[in-house]
Design goal:
There is one protein chain. With 265 residues, the chain is mainly alpha-helical. It has one domain. It is built from twelve helices and no strands. Helix 1 packs parallel to helix 11, helix 7 packs antiparallel against helix 12 and helix 10 packs antiparallel against helix 11.
């Protein structure tokens, strides 16, 4: 890829990884509209690493508290809601991890078409709007339960279908369970950490067979995706209660219609 393609694709990945608008839906647009080649596995690993660094840096205090509480229970400390929340993040990761191992090849072969991405962008965008309208926003992360974690974890497994949006479907599930917009987003972002680690780890194993690597493009992709992802998390959490989900729903519906037109034309 040339420099423009590297910058644009890294920026797209960084922004769309955490917004409820589907990164896969956006990453097919350059190839569909501009005829760009596939970015390749090595670049996917690099931009995922960038987004992982961004979310870890942003939530470093939360992560420290959760890890301290989780490890502390094995040293005889009394469990609190942070200990439980750490366990809930682990529990919510399991469904997507199992689904990825069982259905990865099936999804790669049958569900990565432009038509599938267009339809999931539209359907799950409408579901996000419904969840936001019905949401009362009364529950906080302190009220999280194992049942909620499993439900959100199963919802996250659906994000293996391209166009669904991992952040979008997990925020949707949390909103339907009655959690506030901000806490729904915070749990979604914290939940992204183990999933990105697992995803990048699996891709890295496949990458060992790659004949050559363009390290300059990978470095640029990591930095750009990381910076854009950090900015995205910051502004999303700052304005989510004021804006709600409607702007993202409208955007998804427009994008889905564009992709549907391109796939059928």
């Amino acid at each position: 890829m040339d420099l423009l393609q590297t910058l644009l694709l890294a920026l797209i990945q960084g922004i769309t990884e955490f917004l409820p608008i589907s990164s896969s839906a956006h990453l097919i647009l350059p190839s569909q509209v501009l005829g760009w080649p596939d970015q390749g596995l090595a670049f996917d690993v690099a931009v995922h690493l960038g987004t992982l660094i961004a979310v870890v840096v942003y939530f470093r205090r939360d992560i420290t508290v959760l890890l301290t509480a989780w490890c502390g229970q094995f040293a005889g400390r009394v469990s609190d809601h942070n200990t439980r929340l750490a366990w809930f993040i682990i529990a919510a990761t399991i469904p997507a991890g199992l689904a990825g191992l069982l259905f990865k090849d099936l999804i790669e072969v049958y569900l990565r078409s432009s038509l599938v991405i267009a339809l999931t962008t539209l359907v799950f965008g409408a579901l996000l709007w419904f969840a936001d309208v019905k949401n009362q926003g009364a529950k906080t992360l302190a009220q999280f339960t194992l049942k909620a974690a499993i439900i959100i974890g199963c919802a996250q497994a659906l994000a293996l279908i391209p166009g669904t949006s991992r952040s979008g479907i997990t925020i949707t599930a949390a909103l339907l369970l009655g959690f506030s917009r901000e806490d729904s987003a915070r749990f979604s972002f914290l939940l992204s950490i183990p999933i990105i680690v697992l995803s990048a780890g699996l891709m890295s194993l496949d990458l060992l067979e790659a004949p050559s690597v363009d390290w300059q493009s990978l470095a640029i992709g990591t930095v750009v995706s990381g910076l854009s992802a950090y900015a995205c998390i910051y502004y999303f959490l700052a304005f989510i209660n004021r804006l709600g989900m409607l702007p993202f729903v409208v955007y998804r519906l427009i994008l889905g219609c564009i992709l549907l037109f391109l796939s059928l034309s």
